[in-house]
Amino acid sequence: MLEYNEILKGKVILVGDEPYEVLDAHVFRKQQRKPVNQTKLRHLITGKVTEMAFHVSEKASEADLSTKQVKYLYTKQGLPAGRQGERWFCDEKNPADRFMLSEETIGQGSQFMKPNMLVEALIFDEKIIGIKIPIKMELKVTDAPPAVRGNTSQGGSKVITLETGATVTAPLFINEGDIVSINTVLNEYVERVDKK
Question: I need a labelling partner for 9 at 20 to 30 A (CA). Which of 19, 24, 31, 179 fits?
Answer without folding.
Answer: 31
